[in-house]
């Protein structure tokens, strides 16, 4: 058996959701909205299914969705991609696996930032890569030039960037993007950019892809997810975008992971990507309102809420909230004693974790957020 997997625990998202189901807790842990999602996108998926779009589509994705992704990024992010540079995957999770397996050879060093999304490290290790972890510190969670330089060597091959950043709710700054671009170019490294949260950005801020920086167009793999863009996390339709020389290798890895992705859901995602700017603005405004509702409610209960300008998540700082417990103990107490599930942020560290921060998902109906807040009046 492979030691990477025998040593691995179950992902924190599944663990906390299973505990929430077992206890009847309100689940503000795993990130998924409790609304229905856009009706017209659902209808398009149903139409495609009923009209018979149910056999294997082309391995790299339907031409319609590949074109829709390229068009979408032209309109929303100023990128000039051809449909041949888009490969459709079964969620961003599969895109991450395909990209990491395609690009990492045994002994290659991969620079990643902690807190890190929990799929990255096991995939890099399974590919034989060597993780070079750069630790980010609350409350700003910023990448510094010195920390990045300390992670470099002549075996640096890849950088994995998640922006907007789950679990922190931050967006890479122009200075951080410039730093990363310089780093990749000077070390001849490829960047895998996990941008699944690209549309869930607040306060008038805008996401910028590392791919748009000078010199990065042909050394970036940009990953997206329809699940996040349309608030339909169970759909597992994602994609990776890269210059042809990289895309052809990514496709080789993809063909033996899932080969393809349900064509009816690809049709629905393609339809949705063509929605007008008002749809995306409304979605952002809705989530921003939910963020503000939960932040205000937590503040009134004496919790210290860290700033969140993107993603479905906000964090509380336990120490500043006057709670002496660590994040794992507090999350366990909260689910068992108050009936609210959260995610302890130490789960996003491979070593030397920050243990005083807990993540809550605000992508919920007002009534759900209010019910969770009422339960959280009980404090340890
Ligand atoms: N990357 C990040 C940073 C995520 O937060 C998520 C899911 N929330 C994923 C990847 C996986 O996306 P998908 O559900 O499309 O596989
Ligand atoms: N990305 C989601 C989160 O951060 C969970 C995804 C999953 O459960 N694999 O909560």
From TrEMBL:
NCBIfam families: PRK08912.1. InterPro entries: Aminotransferase_I/II_large, Kynurenine-oxoglutarate_AT, PyrdxlP-dep_Trfase, PyrdxlP-dep_Trfase_major, PyrdxlP-dep_Trfase_small. GO terms for molecular function: transaminase activity. The keyword Transmembrane does not apply. SUPFAM superfamilies: PLP-dependent transferases. Residues 25-375 form the Aminotransferase class I/classII large domain. Keywords: Aminotransferase, Pyridoxal phosphate, Transferase. It comes from the Bacteria. Its cofactor is pyridoxal 5'-phosphate. This is Aspartate aminotransferase.
